[in-house]
């Protein structure tokens, strides 16, 4: 008696199959293919499962990879009807070599597995002999090798394939197209396959290069080197080139580091290769020296963007923001400067330089705002003058005429003093007078102003007060010598400037201006050498009372000081000293020269002039 393979117990009459016993049959069905010229029908192989526990059935088709057909479970597990009366299939209805119809499809059962055969025979069913599984004709046609109509050549390609299989020469090349419009220099990798003498060109992509990551520039193929004369007009774009149109193909000996070759109309320059390629060329062609060639190009210096010419509207910095960003922002302001100098205004009285007679009597009030470095101009109205007074210029920064749009230089508080010429948008103004707050500001910030500005203010004070009959010549010379030590000293000796007398708020000790006295005291406190220099000058001047110096020392030095900087070269300094007849001991002169300020191989001669001035 046959036993159940699940639990090993024999099949007994009258027992129920509740142990998931399944019968398996091999079958196939034919499917029409109406829209194909290569196949008219298709044979699909399936497995039919019969479940004894509830007399249900299912149809499964084995999945074939890349078949393009929806396979797997064709009919899910259920009881299937066999006729129009609604009778269901029973396991007694299944046998080999019969057709069954399920949902309009006819399945041909050709065989069953061993368990099913033993089970059916134990139940007294006579099984038909097994049949061969029908094969799909199109699938069998695809299994046959393709026929090649190629005439065999004398060259043994099989030997070349077996010898050089998986051996590839790798070259690094560049394509320089910078001569053409919008061209650039791009890098490529050229692969030469020794097994079949084919060439492949791959692109080298970098991050954010703006190009599609397409891997190949040229697919793997044989490349013709020289074509026959009649093949120049060969339609290569639609037909494949054969050996009849080519005289010579590219071979491994054509790819040499340091040489150029033209492929598909592009000239590639090979600048390097990998170690395997170097070893192959050394063994095959005897080329042992294949150095890498440096093809890197230095990037040109960045071009500095040029600002367009200033149109005269608004500030230069504010207008330039439109050239830097798409949405311009206001230039940053010095907040600390605005807080410190809030409500601090310097006012000046000015006249207009104009050839028109009516403009000579016009007066203007300049207001300089220290918080923002802006200037406003107001013209006091004059009755019956024919000119409407009022606001002449609103608050704005005024650019000096010598500055450029790239580096604008604005007028500052140090540019405003009595006698200064201020050019405002093509109009020239001369400063005539200041208010008392300007005098206090200049007194507290004397180091920022030039000597010319300080002297102009001193002359203004002199005119306000009753001037003295005059100072002695010695005091005038001493004051002038002190002024020469201030920074950026101009040639004041030619201006013939008079100084205020004693008792003026701008007058200090020894008849010097108060500002000059402050500068000297500041320098003496900071540098002890200044005090020693002043003592030496006093000693020399005491000896000169009996033997005055007859030579004009100042003119002798100014002849070589063409820039009027107060400094001359050391060689020229000693040359001038030797040419002068100085009635003083040589040791004092050497000590005086040692104490004179030096700057880049130059000596300040004003201390020497002060010492020997009578």
Automatic annotation (TrEMBL):
GO molecular function terms listed in the Swiss-Prot or TrEMBL record: alpha-tubulin binding; calcium ion binding
InterPro entries named in the record: DM10_dom, EF-hand-dom_pair, EF_hand_dom, EFHC1/EFHC2/EFHB
Presence of the UniProt keyword Repeat in the record: yes
Subcellular location: Cytoplasm, Cytoskeleton, Flagellum axoneme; Cytoplasm, Cytoskeleton, Microtubule organizing center, Centrosome; Cytoplasm, Cytoskeleton, Spindle pole
Keywords linked to the UniProt accession: Cell projection, Cilium, Cytoplasm, Cytoskeleton, Flagellum, Repeat
Pfam assignment, any one: DM10_dom
SMART domains cross-referenced by the UniProt entry: DM10
Top-rank taxon, per record: Eukaryota
GO CC, one annotated term: spindle pole
UniProt GO BP: cilium-dependent cell motility; mitotic cytokinesis; mitotic spindle organization
Residue ranges of every copy of the EF-hand domain listed in the record: 548-583
Domain DM10: 19-124, 165-285, 342-446
Main location: cytoplasm
Subunit description: Microtubule inner protein component of sperm flagellar doublet microtubules. Interacts with the C-terminus of CACNA1E. Interacts with alpha-tubulin.
Protein name: EF-hand domain-containing protein 1
């Amino acid at each position: 008696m046959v036993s159940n393979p699940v639990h090993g117990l024999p099949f007994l009459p009258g027992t129920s199959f509740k142990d998931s016993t399944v019968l398996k049959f091999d079958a196939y069905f034919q499917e029409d293919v109406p829209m194909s010229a290569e196949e008219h029908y298709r044979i699909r192989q399936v497995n039919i499962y019969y479940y004894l526990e509830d007399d249900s059935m299912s149809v499964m088709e084995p999945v074939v990879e890349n078949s393009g057909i929806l396979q797997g479970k064709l009919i899910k597990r259920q009881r299937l009807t066999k006729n129009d009366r609604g009778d269901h299939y029973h396991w007694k209805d299944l046998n080999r070599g019969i057709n069954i119809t399920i949902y309009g499809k006819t399945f041909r059962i050709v065989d069953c597995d061993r368990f099913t055969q033993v089970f059916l025979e134990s139940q007294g069913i006579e099984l038909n002999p097994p049949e061969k599984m029908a094969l799909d004709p199109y699938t069998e046609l695809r299994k046959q090798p393709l026929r090649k109509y190629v005439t065999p050549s004398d060259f043994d390609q099989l030997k070349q394939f077996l010898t050089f299989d998986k051996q590839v020469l790798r070259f690094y090349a560049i394509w320089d197209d910078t001569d053409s419009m919008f061209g650039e220099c791009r890098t490529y990798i050229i692969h030469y396959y020794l097994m079949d003498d084919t060439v492949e060109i791959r692109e080298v992509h970098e991050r954010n290069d703006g190009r599609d990551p397409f891997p190949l520039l040229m697919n793997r193929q044989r490349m013709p080197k020289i074509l026959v004369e009649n093949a120049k007009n060969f339609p290569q774009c639609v037909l494949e080139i054969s050996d009849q149109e080519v005289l010579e193909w590219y071979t491994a000996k054509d790819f040499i580091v340091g040489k150029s070759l033209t492929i598909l109309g592009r000239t590639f320059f090979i600048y390097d290769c990998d170690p395997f390629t170097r070893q192959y060329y050394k063994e095959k062609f005897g080329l042992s020296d294949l150095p890498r060639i440096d093809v890197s190009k230095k990037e040109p210096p960045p071009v500095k963007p040029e600002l367009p010419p200033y149109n005269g509207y608004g500030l230069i910095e504010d207008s330039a923001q439109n050239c830097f960003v798409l949405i311009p922002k206001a230039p940053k302001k010095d907040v600390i400067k605005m807080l410190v100098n809030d409500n601090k205004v310097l006012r000046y009285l000015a006249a207009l330089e104009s050839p028109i007679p009516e403009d000579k009597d016009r007066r203007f009030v300049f207001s300089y705002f220290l918080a923002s470095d802006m200037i406003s101009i107001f013209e006091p109205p004059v009755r019956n003058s024919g000119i409407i007074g009022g606001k002449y210029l609103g608050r704005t920064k005024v650019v000096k005429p010598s500055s450029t749009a790239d580096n604008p230089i604005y007028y500052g508080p140090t540019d405003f003093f009595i006698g200064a010429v201020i050019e405002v948008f093509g109009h020239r103004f001369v400063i005539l007078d200041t208010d008392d707050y300007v005098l206090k500001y200049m007194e507290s910030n004397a180091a920022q102003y030039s000597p010319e500005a300080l002297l102009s203010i001193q002359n203004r004070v002199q005119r306000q007060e009753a001037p003295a009959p005059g100072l002695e010549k010695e005091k005038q010379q001493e004051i002038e010598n002190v002024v020469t030590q201030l920074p950026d000293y101009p040639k004041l000796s030619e201006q013939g400037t008079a100084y205020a007398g004693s008792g003026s708020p701008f007058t200090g000790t020894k008849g010097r201006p108060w500002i000059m006295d402050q500068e000297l005291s500041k320098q003496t406190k900071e540098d002890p050498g200044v005090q020693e220099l002043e003592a030496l000058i006093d000693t020399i001047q005491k000896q000169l009372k009996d033997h005055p110096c007859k030579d004009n020392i100042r003119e002798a030095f100014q002849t070589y000081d063409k820039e009027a900087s107060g400094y001359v070269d050391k060689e020229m300094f000693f040359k001038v000293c030797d040419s002068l007849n100085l009635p003083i001991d040589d040791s004092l002169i050497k000590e005086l020269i040692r104490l004179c300020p030096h700057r880049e191989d130059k000596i300040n001669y004003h201390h020497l002039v002060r010492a020997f001035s009578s």
